[in-house]
Amino acid sequence: xxxxxxxxxxxxxxxxxxxxxxxxxxxxxxxxxxxxxxxxxxxxxxxxxxxxxxxxxxxxxxxxxxxxxxxxxxxxxxxxxxxxxxxxxxxxxxxxxxxxxxxxxxxxxxxxxxxxxxxxxxxxxxxxxxxxxxxxxxxxxxxxxxxxxxxxxxxxxxxxxxxxxxxxxxxxxxxxxxxxxxxxxxxxxxxxxxxxxxxxxxxxxxxxxxxxxxxxxxxxxxxxxxxxxxxxxxxxxxxxxxxxxxxxxxxxxxxxxxxxxxxxxxxxxxxxxxxxxxxxxxxxxxxxxxxxxxxxxxxxxxxxxxxxxxxxxxxxxxxxxxxxxxxxxxxxxxxxxxxxxxxxxxxxxxxxxxxxxxxxxxxxxxxxxxxxxxxxxxxxxxxxxxxxxxxxxxxxxxxxxxxxxxxxxxxxxxxxxxxxxxxxxxxxx
Length: 429
Known about the structure:
Blueprint: H1 6-27, E1 42-51, E2 64-68, H2 70-73, H3 81-88, E3 90-94, E4 99-107, E5 139-141, H4 144-147, E6 155-158, E7 163-168, E8 171-174, E9 193-198, H5 223-240, H6 250-256, E10 261-273, E11 292-296, E12 320-325, E13 334-344, E14 348-351, E15 363-369, E16 376-391, E17 398-406, H7 409-420
Parallel strand pairs: 2-16
Antiparallel strand pairs: 1-4, 3-4, 3-10, 5-13, 6-7, 6-9, 7-8, 8-11, 9-10, 10-11, 12-13, 13-14, 14-17, 15-16, 16-17
């Protein structure tokens, strides 16, 4: 399926809301449509030590192999407090390549609501690939009128080839494997940039910005920004060349005329949990920690999406998740999708959303009512890790899965601290 009409997309989304409201009225239940209130533990820094500079030698990973899946993880013992503190310790890498390792302490874990273990069967039935199967159910948000409006505007593009979501004006949540392969940081992370969707420039009405790249007034953000915007636009010009070579792409070219453009900004520092790093997660649970937070050099004037904690997605009335990213097969376009969750564990979600490489790192979100209010609010409840080859039963047999990492109370506490710098602001989810 190519780019889908926005009218159709809005109609589908409106219908979903109507169905949810009618179901709520029919059951008389309100709690199941309300964000649950959670007490989360405190994750505090204990000690920070300097590490040697990274070499940025790793190659970006297209897909992950050997991940211990939901069924495999059921055989693993529950981590101890010491294990959790080890996994949640984190590495910070700065733009000049210097690194630090911060160990953490976890407090108040016994005060947290019991986190469900999930309801997964141990059967080895085949799963469907992340590659598009059957009818392509993705929607290309090619019109700036919609792609630069909330919630789509919270989606960002990572220069290593992934996607992410804005958690604050200066912080982006993405997948750890987009930055680090478990042994070293990927080569593109040395000069890491984040692309924010932008509306049509308010300057230079006579053109679309193509002829004004060299003018001084566009250098307000610095030479780096100018060069980065030039790279993005030059890439678009190359795609438009050779119009007669591929007639099949005629409709796609027409959509690209008004496709979103990006405002690129540099990343100041990146934080990755030790659970993802080699040796930090034993027994194959590294997939549970496939997330990272990027701190931008400059705050963005774009509405962000808050973090949320939900004990079970499958038990929600619709059991549906949403996420938007920049799939490689639709260059320059934001791609939105929604689907139901098939299985879940304490840390992972399996689902059948159509996606392509490039969508990894997208923020997975749902929409529920705020406690005591009639206002509905979207919150990020996971990170789309992408297509993974999973060791299902621990016997080495590999199967295809669509995997998202869940935001648990502990991960909420850690990510919230990275964003706010004060653990006392992160006690309630």
